Amino acid sequence: MNIICANTWSSRAAGLLTRPRLKVEEVLWLNPCHAIHTFGMTYPIAVFFLDQHLQVIDVRSCVKPIRIAYCGRAHSVCEMLAMKDDQTEFVSSLLTATLLSNTAT
Prior knowledge:
five-stranded mixed β-sheet
C-alpha cells in the first residue's frame, strides 16, 4: 500500500480533488478527519474511518460521487478506490497494519 498523507488543512481540503485518479495500491489518509464528501469526484471511493489507535471503526465500501460520509467517532479517514463489501475486512486489517508500521518509524 502506498499511503499518501494529508495532514495539513490545505491538503485535507484539497483531498482527492486535485490529484489524479487513485491507483489500486494508493490510499489517501486524512488526519485528523471524521467526514468526507465526494462532490466533484468522477469515480466512487471506499472510505475507512479510523479511531485514534488507527483501528478501523466504520467502512463505506462504495461512496459514489456527490455524497457525504460521516463518522463522529473517527479520528482520521482513509480513502481508496471503491471495492466490494467482501473485500473490506481484509483491506481493513492490511490498512491498520500498514499505518501502524508507518507511524512507528
